[in-house]
């Protein structure tokens, strides 16, 4: 480890190392202990920074584009992500970066214009945008210029070679939840999946990971969003009663839809003590922890402690609570700062960005795959007595990438 880098970049710098001066991705990634959380915002905390296009953060030699919705759809979130980028720059000991803050106006045309403007100013990499269509538009411009993109969309279909997603993708969450269940002795899985784009994405991953783990899919039922009753009745034969053939039930529902699914399961006589419910990070809402059908259920999500620490520091500086995705902008800036310090002209090259060791961020270790999707170290939470506890901590190191 390079001591100066680790000290300057406590979250992301600690995952980068060198070997005798040779510039190559590190063999291991390490997480640093999170900083203490301020108990309350400072009384004289400055107001939230105005977030408009054309701003710059820093005046360093390495130019980085930060493309966000600072007006139009998503403007409030975009402003918070811009603030998180400022926080990263400040906590990164003023790295040798110039962050070109560009407004994509919350739409693809704006993203294309913003990216073109940033590239004309010499940006070497594009951070953002937030929405899937905007990522695609920005990527088309960046690819033509031979520059990589680190987008914040959760739509895995926009990922591609050179277009990396630093977001909370559902696929790793499905993998972690199923792998934990199999490790605990579960071998037969059923699923209740809404007929939504999210449902389509997670069903494909669910089938793949169950097969990969040597388990079986007992049954899958789909249902129109908001109307799970008939699907629960059809699935009852494998998830209720002494003759239940499944020992785990996958329910990838939103916080809004999950109470209806839970009520239908309870009405059908479902016992979570006999068939364990499992889900994704969408379950990570305290209002859901009281549902009888989810008691003993498990879901995979990033460890909350990292974001709690980040949120405390953000509140102390800006006087407001950051949205969940603000940590992505923070990590993206920390990452570019760390890579620019260590890897010179190869700082944003594909082998550097896709290091198998990954990088340590606010929400744990993450890495980019060559296809643009990301993998994260996730914890497994169990719902019990109207609360959650971690039953399987997030690993500090990611498993060796599959060949």
Automatic annotation (TrEMBL):
Family matches, as CDD domains: PBP1_YraM_LppC_lipoprotein-like (cd06339)
Disordered as annotated region, ranges: 20-45
Ranges for domain Leucine-binding protein: 62-386
Family: Belongs to the leucine-binding protein family.
Protein name stated in the entry: Penicillin-binding protein activator
Keywords, alphabetical: Amino-acid transport, Signal, Transport
Range of residues in the leader sequence: none
Biased composition (Low complexity): 33-45
Superkingdom of source: Bacteria
SUPFAM superfamilies named among the record's database cross-references: Periplasmic binding protein-like I (SSF53822)
Lineage: Bacteria, Pseudomonadati, Pseudomonadota, Alphaproteobacteria, Hyphomicrobiales
Pfam families referenced in this protein's UniProt entry, alphabetically: Peripla_BP_6 (PF13458)
Any GO BP annotation: amino acid transport
InterPro entries the record matches: BCAA_transport, Leu-bd, Peripla_BP_I
């Amino acid at each position: 480890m390079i001591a100066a880098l680790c000290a300057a970049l406590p979250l992301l710098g600690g995952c980068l190392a060198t070997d005798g001066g040779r510039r190559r991705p590190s063999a291991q990634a390490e997480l640093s202990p999170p900083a203490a959380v301020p108990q309350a915002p400072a009384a004289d905390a400055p107001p939230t920074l105005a977030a408009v296009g054309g701003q710059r953060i820093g005046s360093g030699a390495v130019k980085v584009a930060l493309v966000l919705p600072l007006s139009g759809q998503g403007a409030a979130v975009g402003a918070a992500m811009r603030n998180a980028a400022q926080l990263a720059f400040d906590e990164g000991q003023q790295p040798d970066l110039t962050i070109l803050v560009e407004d994509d106006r919350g739409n693809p045309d704006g993203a294309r214009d913003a990216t073109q403007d940033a590239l004309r100013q010499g940006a070497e990499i594009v951070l953002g945008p937030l929405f899937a269509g905007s990522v695609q538009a920005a990527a088309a411009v960046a690819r033509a210029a031979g520059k990589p993109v680190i987008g914040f969309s959760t739509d895995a279909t926009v990922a591609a070679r050179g277009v990396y997603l630093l977001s909370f993708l559902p696929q790793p969450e499905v993998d972690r939840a199923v792998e934990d269940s199999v490790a605990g002795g579960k071998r037969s899985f059923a699923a209740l999946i809404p007929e939504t784009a999210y449902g389509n994405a997670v069903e494909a991953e669910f089938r793949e990971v169950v097969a990969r783990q040597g388990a079986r899919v007992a049954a899958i039922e789909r249902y129109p969003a908001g109307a799970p009753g008939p699907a629960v009745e059809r699935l009852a034969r494998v998830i209720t009663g002494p003759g239940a053939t499944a020992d785990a039930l996958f329910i990838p529902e939103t916080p809004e839809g999950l109470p209806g699914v839970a009520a239908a399961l309870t009405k059908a006589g479902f016992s979570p003590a006999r068939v364990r419910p499992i889900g994704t990070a969408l379950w990570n809402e305290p209002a859901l922890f009281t549902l009888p059908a989810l008691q003993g259920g498990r879901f995979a999500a990033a460890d909350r402690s990292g974001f709690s620490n980040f949120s405390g520091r953000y509140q102390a500086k800006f006087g407001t609570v950051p949205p969940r995705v603000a940590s992505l902008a923070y990590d993206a800036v920390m990452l570019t700062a760390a890579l620019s310090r260590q890897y010179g002209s190869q700082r944003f090259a594909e082998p550097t960005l896709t290091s198998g060791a990954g990088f340590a961020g606010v929400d744990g270790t993450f890495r980019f795959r060559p296809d643009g999707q990301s993998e994260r170290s996730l914890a497994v939470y169990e719902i019990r007595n109207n609360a959650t506890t971690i039953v399987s901590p997030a690993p500090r190191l990611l498993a060796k990438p599959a060949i």
